[in-house]
Design brief:
By secondary structure, the protein is α/β, with parallel strands linked by helices. It is about 25% helix and about 20% strand. It is built from nine helices and 18 strands. Bound molecules: flavin-adenine dinucleotide and NADP nicotinamide-adenine-dinucleotide phosphate.
């Protein structure tokens, strides 16, 4: 019997488990599957942890999400085609849910099946060796401090790429009297109430961590971009300046001459794709981009078609793109999709990579990833979903952010699966301090 190892039980690993379960439901004989996750429970980044640094076994903590994190994109864009929000919650819910609500949704469909017993939790994959025929996968059971090796025919790498922080150094950091941290370790903006915070970066973490600090009462928030400013109309108390030059004592000195007193510096400088368990010839080496090279259809390792990578792209699309990738990977493993010859694969990869390199605007990037996901969608029996609506919603969302970065999360969209419209949330995001599932779902009737 074919054996498949899945490394990671985050959204990508769970999509893979779900894809096989759906095939089994249709009466197909599926391979033997073992999924490994180094955490104690499933859900990947969405499984919030208060921990930073190492866990109780000395293993680096993968979690990068924080308390009070709300979805930064409309939930309609990430909806599962085979399990709508309406089905999970029994009613339409607002378009920008907090983390706990999305976590509940991600787990909803897998809880209905028997996937959990295929997962070995608190188990870190430490090595994958290809012996010319199959893979020898070594894993460490952290609770019992034991290591084992098992042989698999296929390996699906689904360990995420937002867990290992990229931490640059700037002059003066060693002598800075305040706190310096990476967004990976950011857990609670309350810590920065009444403080002067400097945030480095110009992408989603910089934007959202800065907004969180402002929302929870920071005295000032100064965001320093390196290449392109985000350029939003920041509220009073927030500003965007050009590139940090150095720290001198508690002063941050920027390349545009700006000087700011700082109590804390938060590095929102991104993450490293990190695969310490893979040998060099199987290791994806890439920055955070929309089409990492060497992956056929963004999934299959060019030089070994029994190795798949899921979710390694920079992400506009998330959960339904992961599903399309998982369904595609499943069908390759089950022999339903034939991999073309080497030159076809190279041509296909080059086509996508060269298209990606020409992208200039956010709208073009949205189009690119929508086209990629649509193409993958045609290759398997993943259920119907309206990708044209998703494309449109993403673009409207981008424009809402430009209109007002403080209010974009108060907007509503319609579902690409059921067509239902997300109701307006009872409390505007700027003043919604309680991010619990209960409070979010309890829509007081008189406020609607
Ligand atoms: C701060 C932050 C906020 C985000 N917010 C959103 C959002 O609002 N909406 C959205 O759609 N996306 C968001 N994302 C994007 C996020 O990448 C995806 O939503 C999703 O979590 C990716 O799923 P994944 O399975 O690829 O990776 P992960 O969620 O990272 O899961 C990977 C899993 O692999 C496990 N693992 C890693 N290494 C090993 C190993 N060696 N052995 C065993 N297990 C291992 C980890 O424990 C983890 O459980 C956010 C990302 C970050 C960093
Ligand atoms: N739900 C939410 O609200 C939420 C919140 C946070 C994050 N996220 C998600 O988290 C993921 C990761 O986002 P991310 O912003 O952490 O990573 P990212 O998108 O890869 O961005 C990395 C940023 O770091 C900057 N940078 C890198 N090196 C630098 C240096 N030496 N000095 C200054 N700046 C430097 C880059 O700027 P250059 O352009 O200059 O290279 C870029 O702006 C995304 O999928 C995002 O959607 C979601």
């Amino acid at each position: 019997m074919t054996k498949v190892a899945i490394i990671g039980a985050g959204p990508c690993g769970l999509s893979t488990l779900r894809s096989f379960e759906q095939a089994e439901k249709k009466g197909e004989k599926i391979p033997e599957i073992v999924c490994f996750d180094k955490q104690e429970d499933w859900g990947g980044l969405w499984n919030y942890s208060w921990r930073t640094g190492s866990d109780q076994y000395g293993d680096p903590v993968p979690n990068s999400m924080y308390r009070y994190l709300w979805s930064n994109g409309p939930k309609e864009c990430l909806e599962f085609a085979d399990y709508s929000f309406d089905e999970h919650f029994g009613k339409p819910i607002p378009s920008f849910p907090p983390r706990e609500v999305l976590y509940d949704y991600i787990l909803g469909r897998v809880k209905k099946g028997n996937s959990k017993n295929k997962i070995k939790f608190s188990t870190t994959v430490t090595s994958v060796v290809y012996n010319g025929n199959n893979f020898e996968v070594t894993y460490r059971d952290k609770k019992n401090a034991t290591s084992s090796t098992e042989v698999f025919d296929y390996v699906v790498v689904a360990n995420g790429h937002f867990s290992v922080p990229f931490i640059p150094e700037y002059p003066g950091m060693k002598a800075f009297p305040g706190r310096i941290m990476h967004s990976h370790d950011f857990r609670d903006a309350e810590e920065f109430r009444d403080k002067n915070v400097v945030v480095l970066g110009s992408s989603y973490s910089a934007e959202d961590v800065a907004l969180q600090c402002h929302k929870y009462g920071a005295k000032s928030v100064t965001i320093a971009y390196r290449h392109n400013p985000m350029g939003f109309n920041w509220p009073k108390g927030m500003k965007e300046v050009y590139h940090l030059d150095r720290l001198e004592g508690n002063k941050a000195i920027f390349k545009d001459g700006h000087v700011q007193e700082a109590d804390a510096v938060i590095l929102c400088t991104g993450y490293l794709h990190h695969f310490p368990f893979l040998p060099e010839d199987l290791k994806l080496k890439t920055g955070n981009r929309l089409y990492p090279p060497k992956l056929y259809k963004g999934v299959v390792w060019q030089n070994n078609h029994k190795l798949m990578y899921l979710g390694m792209q920079d992400q506009f699309h998330t959960f339904n793109m992961f599903d399309c990738q998982a369904w595609f990977a499943r069908d390759i493993i089950m022999g339903k999709i034939k991999i073309p010859d080497t030159s076809e694969i190279e041509k296909d990869i080059n086509k996508w990579v060269s298209m990606e390199e020409k992208l200039e605007s956010a709208d073009q990037m949205i189009d690119f990833q929508t086209e990629y996901t649509k193409e993958l969608h045609t290759l398997s029996d993943y259920p119907k979903i309206d990708f044209e609506l998703i494309r449109k919603i993403f673009k409207e969302w981008e424009h809402h952010k430009v209109e007002n970065i403080m209010t974009y999360r108060n907007k509503s969209f319609s579902s690409p699966v059921t067509g239902s419209i997300g109701p307006k949330h009872h409390t505007a995001w700027e003043v919604a301090m309680d991010d619990s599932l209960k409070t979010f779902l309890d829509q007081p009737k008189n406020k609607l």
